[in-house]
């Protein structure tokens, strides 16, 4: 009788909810679930609602839609679309090159991508199937039925056994444990391996067969952690998430509420938004330039063609008559098709293969991060993790580092250091003489009873006021010294362990009873009545317990700022001093307070809490209100100090980052004093750093209105840090120089929100810019008391500031996720606060110290590699296509290709692709040790140095120079085409083949010249591709290919090689093309005091030399621009007019470059 | 067990994965570069001198015979209305023109590298496939079929525009004309003559051409190009092959004959010569020029000043640069030079 009445109550609850809502329209964002598909008698007609089935579909494609869907998605990319258009033009219009030349590479790219995506999707299908076909037990009409997971419907009652995963989101109805709880680990969801307790729906009947109930709950929402769903009278503690695993519990029964794609797990499945790197933006800009070059080339050729044809006799000589169709075609249409033909002829200037190579470089390159054994942490048995390979090069461009404090700068490995009870400081001494380990170091030693009572109360509070679980070990040694406790926050464990050392041991929670072993080895029992959970806004947590003697006690612990206003002021004064001192020493302090609740008080609180928990709307707010109401009028017992030790090498890492020119901002939720001391410990602030403080405290100093004071302070600091500061010399390491005053800036959350959301709009933007300017001129910035969202706000503000600096966020906890997602590069630390940061990051590393290598070595190298890759690709295609463009002037603008179709197609795919790929994977222009030891080297590539317009211009000029040289060199050779010793002549394909041979060799050797790090792979690939070119040319020209309409290249290559003149011109042109580069390499040598100083202090003079060669390259390239352009025009005039006065003028330009370079060494790179 | 796990998770400690592959780091120091430049420079100067001298020693005799000027011997022939015009070009040699002498014809402003012209051919037909005799390739338009819709063999613009001026060289010996024998073999690429171009294996060759017509510009069909020598007839006729290999630039020359036989084995002796030209090929309507070139060749081919001078210039450039570098190095004394 009792049981069924309970069921009705539950049912009525539901109805009540409905009735309450009856006034307004029925909420569409809630769903009603009939447990076991039995209609609730109290509700009106039973309409079985429609919900999705329990199939998880993470795959994108099916067999049927794969082709169209995948193709559609691929052609949405601009580049692929462009090549498709070119291909279609080739198919439709009569163009010089066959559609194969562009169709084949495109087909290759599309196929490879499709295969890759298809394979990934197949894996997803497989994984889905594994989940969907998993056998589960469903209770149906009292019978247990084994069925496949995908057949579970909403409302089904599912039985889950120990160590099984939940097949869908379940409301826990019944547990095999006595206390109506079950334990769950969410390791596969968020990596947190601790056991979480979930509760059955309170007061449900135990006989599930006869349970008639409906559950009304929210429509599915993806939020995994926040208040997951508002159930009538149910909370997140009743919900078991799909993907979590049942632990320590034999079996449970639950009703399915969300199935399939509506489970929390599936809703969280969507990937995060794509981050695009700065390099990609550069590529797009360059692409635009090349597109302009392409279009203008085509326009020039089309125009000139019609100008040329207007001369008599040129349009249609007798030997080259037009077809009837051509004669009939409209002139403008002809012009248009001619334009298209030229576009097609020159389209190779924008290479398809670049995208493939860049993708491959990023994908393969990211393995070096995962493989790096320096990132391996033996403690957690894991190395680094790469979630996105798209951002590798961004690691070399970081200007701002936003770091979390707890768990990132510090270890989050808490150790109880001392406590302060009633104004007396107690320090734990390991080898203490006193038995209890207590040592009063401050104030008179009082061992009188009241103090001892307070002590015990304090220790009991520590033992009771927490949410720690005792790990259930099979043996009797419960709660052993280490690793015996599991908690969501390490502070709590530290406190419980601290109490244990003083004789109070927490034994565990048994059916809502907390057991404590006190000093006298007696077990004390306390009934746990309520837990007032911790939240970052309140910054405290409380428990309400009832002791054996019947007293109802509330214990509360929390940050000083949140406790002090709630206790009697006279108690505060005694403890505040200790708290503040501990905070300046870098300890985390917590205050402990208690209150005895009278029966009415408790009844009132109990009712309030229950009501708030059941509230349908604004539950958070209501709960908060009750919490605040209950946690008042407490009396302060004492305070604790817990040390959070710095991460290994935290200071060195921070110093290196600052040395590399990065600005480090610490964003923490911690209080200012603690954070400040951590900053000092990490050497972010140094002794001579002048701190500019903008906190609530400084704002209230003047006793005037906060707004005014803020205004005043901002202007003052701005004057100090921005206006009075000498102009920044980028070349000088600011943090090392003593002449400049270093500034550190401190702001807290409240002030920040004032700055950002000032009441006056005009002020707001002004404050913001003032604030930003101050911050940018400070070496380190500390933002304390930050809410997670504020962290992201700051990152966003800096990210969007002038110049768009590259930002990096590093953090380990859930509160860092927002800033990790916001920053250009997000780094997660595989710390102790779960795996949320890691899951949302782009890269994850085990420790903070790994950041140094990740940025200074990997980031630097990746950037240099990809920058070179991009520039080189544009360059090699420019000098590939330029001769073909020039040839138009000599073939009546007839779109005659200079190279054979095979060469056009293979150039980017086979002949020149592998060396640059190998380079972009293996190059170390400076070896890793030197990069790590000289953080300043990082500055040399800052601000996208290698992909700005100047280097781009250099490469373009080089490409033009080479293109001109190739074409005109061979052109003058062909003034007499009788090049063989038997007097026979060479034709147009020989011409093209000679140009192409010079091209392939020059372009490959140019890369060889740039390669500073020759591994056997580089050797193999560079010499291998040259050999392959020669081999292929012989092969291609050695056979009459039956599928070809014209055997253009038949024996052309072999005949070319039989001509001495061809050999000589090839050697000459290759050497001449590389001459400027060889000179560049020679004059890259280090000079000047800077190089010398580092050279002396360093033990790698060899490698350093070319490290500084790099600087030189930057500066010298400017100097050599003039000489290069000079020598370009010179070599042109050389090949054109063969003037013999050349050596003189060239030596002149050479000395020019020499006299320029020492000057440029003082100019910052 | 624990160790096993450790090895499972720990990244491989290989040189490759740790980016520690042994590597050669080339250093272009002054000690290498300056001697290198000197050596390269000297080598280039040496090659340049050899090329220059060789090129200087090549004798070339070039005569334009388009007949644009009134006083040109071929002026009367330049009028397109005159048919079967023959003109004589007289010249004299005051010393021996060393043999073997190569005789080229040259055309200017003639765009054999025009794209549409270039694709207007059927290589399958030219390799003797009879299918393509009856239905030539699409690309051959407008010379695919004639007005009567008969297939043209060989089809296409390139074949149609075969150069058809013919030349005879006479030495005037004591007022009498003595024919200088021309050697028409070995003027085309060996592979073209023996592999790429094939006549259909039908004898007589004429039968293969049944149902086809000759190119409109041609005066005689392909199988009558050289009836005397089957190895030089049809598609493997060497003049035809030379023409079919398209020139790279609009001003080009093509090999016509070699003078290697008889009295002229060692070259053309000093004396007076008369070149009899059967002037057929029209070039004036597109402002073209025709010329004949006598030349002997060396190991580097025909006369070409460019290569020699370029080598000399680059070579001396290298030497000068090495000197400049030496001065700079001596002056600046790079501090960390070992």
Automatic annotation (TrEMBL), chain A:
P-type ATPase N-terminal domain boundaries: 49-102
Entry keywords, A to Z: ATP-binding, Cell membrane, Endoplasmic reticulum, Endosome, Lipid transport, Magnesium, Membrane, Metal-binding, Nucleotide-binding, Phosphoprotein, Signal, Translocase, Transmembrane, Transmembrane helix, Transport
An example Gene Ontology molecular-function term: ATP hydrolysis activity
EC number(s) recorded for this UniProt protein: 7.6.2.1
Binding-site positions, ATP: 404-406, 492, 534, 557, 588, 668-670, 785, 791, 815-816
Record localization: Cell membrane; Early endosome; Endoplasmic reticulum membrane; Membrane
BP terms from Gene Ontology: phospholipid translocation
Domain P-type ATPase C-terminal: 838-1085
Cofactor(s) the protein requires to work: Mg(2+)
Family matches, as Pfam families: Cation_ATPase, E1-E2_ATPase, PhoLip_ATPase_C, PhoLip_ATPase_N
NCBIfam families noted in UniProt: ATPase-Plipid, ATPase_P-type
Family indicated by similarity: Belongs to the cation transport ATPase (P-type) (TC 3.A.3) family. Type IV subfamily.
Protein name: Phospholipid-transporting ATPase
Native source species: Myripristis murdjan (pinecone soldierfish)
